[in-house]
């Protein structure tokens, strides 16, 4: 199934044979203090910049009714973000009381974001539009 929207993601997760856990890493975008005027201008247009993970949340597909509900919930944290990265994994919480797999997955995801190796992650902007990242 091609995932072209957040709703496609939710539908795909709900259709899996095994229960799924969705992993969300919210990231802020900024430019360094020593950025050139051209880099600052590109960033102001929504291009370029550095992504910094600021918030990690895991949910079952049934705990996410829509993208707007996810945005509303994230807004209540008081943390601003520009991009949310999403991955899915089989939900082992029914079998393991303390699921360390989720924590390890979040560590991998945040490292991937910090190093720019995000090709295997889905990404959405604050409007729920899918994002594709190109070379700088």
Protein model, in words:
- The protein has 136 residues and is α+β, with helices and mostly antiparallel strands.
- It has one domain.
- 32% of the residues lie in helices and 24% in strands.
- It has 4 helices and 4 strands.
- It has a 4-stranded antiparallel β-sheet with strand order 2-1-3-4.
- The longest helix has 16 residues.
- 18% of the residues are buried.
Radius of gyration, whole Å: 16 Å
Structural class: alpha+beta
Number of strands: 4
Q: Per the principal axes of the C-alpha atoms, what is the gross shape?
A: globular
Please give the share of residues in helix.
Answer: 25-40%
Question: How much beta, percentage-wise?
Answer: 15-25%
Give the terminus-to-terminus CA distance: 29 Å
Primary descriptors:
136 residues, alpha+beta, four-stranded antiparallel β-sheet, 4 helices, globular
Offer a concise description of the structure:
By secondary structure, this protein is an alpha+beta fold. The chain has four helices and four strands. The relative contact order is 0.22.
Present the secondary structure layout.
Elements lengths: L5 H10 L4 E11 L6 H8 L5 E10 L7 H9 L7 E8 L9 H16 L6 E4 L11
Antiparallel strand pairs: 1-2, 1-3, 3-4
